[in-house]
């Protein structure tokens, strides 16, 4: 089966030619991979200037894990993939990603027989490193 590309978000177009070019650069698209069995977007993308950030979940390790890559040259090359979730006792799914001015935010759900909770990891250095997994459903202050 061939991967399918879908548009996740669309920005209102302005009639100026230069503005339309900027809009195309900021459209958010995702790739639906065959192994995801149409469970949702397999590779959400976020962009900021020439940086392209990609996150997805995969079951290559025996359970679902959230993976991540970044490109600093507009998608010509990407870094090695990083396992952001690394949670062998639960499935990490439904990943979303956002980026702006050097900050990258990746969220997903951790699911097991006893848990179903949203989590988040944040990078303040353009996606080079990430802080710890923060469990958003916890009571009180987080982090």
Describe the secondary-structure layout.
Elements: E1 4-9, H1 17-26, E2 28-32, E3 45-48, E4 51-58, E5 65-71, E6 82-83, E7 91-100, E8 103-111, E9 116-123, E10 134-135
Structure write-up:
A four-stranded antiparallel beta sheet has the order 3-4-5-6, with no helix packed on it. The protein has a four-stranded antiparallel beta sheet with strand order 7-8-9-10, with no helix packed on it. Strands 1-2 form a two-stranded antiparallel ribbon. It is mostly beta strands. It has a domain at 40-135. The protein is built from one helix and ten strands. The chain has one helix at residues 17-26; strands spanning 4-9, 28-32, 45-48, 51-58, 65-71, 82-83, 91-100, 103-111, 116-123, 134-135.
Number of separate strands: 10
Q: What would you call the shape?
A: globular
Q: What is the mean pLDDT?
A: 77
Helix percent reads under 10%
**What topology, given as strand order, has the largest sheet?**
3-4-5-6
Indicate the proportion of strand residues: 35-45%
- Element-by-element helix/strand order: EHEEEEEEEEE
Outline the low-pLDDT stretches.
Answer: 1-38
Structural class: mainly beta
* Subunit organisation of the chains: single chain
Rg measurement, Å: 16 Å
